[in-house]
Amino acid sequence: MTQAIPPSIRIHAADDVAVALRPLAAGEQAEGVVLTGDVARGHKFALRDIAEGAPVVKYGQPIGRATHAIAAGEHVHTHNLATALAGELAYSPHLGAAQVQADDGAVLPSWRGYRRADGRAATRNEIWILPTVGCVGMTAEQVAREAQARHADLIAAGRIDGIHAFAHPHGCSQLGDDLDGTRAVLAGLAASPNAAGVLLLGLGCESNQLDALVEAVPVWARAKLRLLSSQSAGNEIAEAGKLVDELVAEAARAERTELPLSALTIGLKCGGSDGFSGLTANPLLGRLSETMARAGGKAILTEIPEIFGAEQALLDRSSSRAVFEAAAGLVNRFKRYYLDQGLPVSENPSPGNLAGGITTLEEKSLGAVQKAGHAPLSDVIDYGGQASVPGLTLMEAPGNDAVSSTALAASGATLVLFTTGRGTPLGFPVPTIKVASNRTLAEAKPHWIDFDASIALDEGQEAADAAFLARILAFASGERTASERGGQRAIAVWKRGVTL
Q1: pTM (predicted TM-score)
Q2: CA 291 to CA 293: how far, in whole Å?
Q3: Please, are residues 113 and 79 in contact by the beta-carbon 8 Å criterion?
Q4: Within 151-235, where are the H helices?
Q5: Cα distance between residue 188 and residue 14, in whole Å
Q6: Of 88-97, 336-345, 373-382, the least confident
Q7: What is the torsional sign of CA 461, 466, 467, 468?
Q8: How many domains does the chain have?
Q9: Quick one: which of 197, 194, 189 has its CA closest to 166?
């Protein structure tokens, strides 16, 4: 049932600010105060007088300090609010802050996917071509296009879901940990359950040699690999095509079967956030994350720089002292990554975030971590690592949309749930479900957006949660996302070192 939407919302009883749910004009009254100026949709206004230098509270937590005295009813943004973040911190464990009980006896929904020989479950049955180096990226794309045309009948019949190449510019002129990171993420992609078969296409003289890449692929995933070095081949296009044909023949024998919710692994991502992201879309993902944790499924959270300022609440949900120490170490290591480059840890939000009403990194982070809900933190993994523990996993990766979404796919996510307030068309190796934080975006870009989270405001959270879970299971069972329909599939590798 549709309910009346108020002009603004106060998220937490302790908050100093409220968020405008529609454009508000000077002189209007909202939350018991009279606005002293216009406030754009998604932006904040003060609920009380705030002294210069005092913390400003939203989500029940400080989001920065007032740079000037702020009067009740005044617009609160970059002109009078600034970050209070600095560098590394000494975190104290307060374990057990989150307890998500198992749904004992509850009837949980199922979905239809592919059960792989290693026991993991896939949402797609595809062939992937992964170039070891940028030099053969276009070759990989040509092989994929020709194979896609050659096997169009099998794709149309649903025997396989597609043949895709994922080009990138890396794999050579890299050293040490930088090369290791490229190899790790490509190995993780090769291990993805959604790739029924994988052709690793090399050049021959690159730093990222085929044999070293194969060694980085988990042992249980190597049987589905085929290898080709282009410099050693005669006609590399023809030889690669034959290897892909072999993989297609094997993959076409797979069948979708009924699978439990616990077999699903989701990646959590936000990009192009706005003032509504922390009100609608991210909490929607958070409640789903809690459902996944109760069911014994896996959810993966990353974007470490977009945890800065909200990390203590997440650390408090660590399932053990070892997990706490690993997570705290990861956050501080990422801060050091910035500081060693002479950069502040608070060099965020983006211009689009600012336009949408997000002022400081603390505010962005407190909204972003809501994608994990209150699920306990079960594990911490490095970039290119595999999520293996049920519940919430924290993974090392930056906030960049393409880099972090690629890393989620490489870590075992078979769906990426991507919330956005500004909109973006790009998709990634696994089905990428775009969740709009506001109705304006959902209505303007239906060819980008898969779900409108703003229904939580006018239909209530329970209705939104039920509708969202139904859509997630439909996409997991084979329905194509907007980015899949648009042919938007790409990867990006996290480049951290010098280029030779």
Answers
A1: 0.95
A2: 5
A3: no
A4: 152-156, 176-190, 210-216
A5: 43
A6: 88-97
A7: positive
A8: 3
A9: 189
